[in-house]
Design a protein that fits this description.
By secondary structure, this protein is an alpha/beta fold. 30% of the residues lie in helices and 24% in strands. A five-stranded parallel beta sheet has the order 1-8-7-2-4. Strands 3-9 form a two-stranded antiparallel sheet. A two-stranded antiparallel sheet has the order 5-6. Strand 5 and strand 6 form a beta hairpin. This is Rhodanese domain-containing protein. InterPro entries: Rhodanese-like_dom (IPR001763), Rhodanese-like_dom_sf (IPR036873), STR17/STR18/HARC1-like (IPR044684). Pfam families: Rhodanese (PF00581).
Length: 135
């Protein structure tokens, strides 16, 4: 089915939509948000079990991969946990999901469309309160 890679192992990443994700996180799946802390703090998926571990960091030179990503995930999740990986639009989460599968995580899915799709569907979010200007 998949191609055989000589440089790096190839894995099949399962991508599910935001509606399927919503159902799974309501049934106890862990939601792993791989966006930056700044993105996460502006608003994120409302989930009981949610973890924010950035897959990439913003630097003056552009985005760079978080070299501690797999170590940080392994300290927060077991390889048997049911995990859904999400980001802003579905790109970083795709790479993060592949990395986790290569590391031996058994049940990891990528949330296609990311947080942008989640908002578009008007699913519950947690965001800081809007500041009102009463001037």
């Amino acid at each position: 089915m998949g191609s055989i890679g000589t440089e790096s192992p190839k894995v099949e990443v399962a991508t599910i939509d935001v509606t399927a994700t919503k159902g799974l996180i309501q049934n106890g799946h862990v939601y792993l948000d791989v966006r930056t802390v700044e993105e996460f703090e502006k608003g994120h998926v409302d989930a009981e079990k949610i973890i924010n571990i950035p897959y990439m960091f913003n630097t003056p030179q552009g985005r760079v991969k978080n070299q501690e990503f797999l170590k940080e995930v392994s300290s927060a999740c077991k390889k048997e946990d049911h995990i859904i990986v999400g980001c802003q639009s579905g790109v970083r989460s795709l790479y993060a999901t592949a990395d986790l599968l290569v590391q031996g995580y058994k049940d990891v899915n990528n949330m296609g469309g990311g947080y942008l799709d989640w908002i578009k569907n008007e699913f519950p979010v947690k965001a800081p309160p809007k500041v009102k200007n009463d001037l």
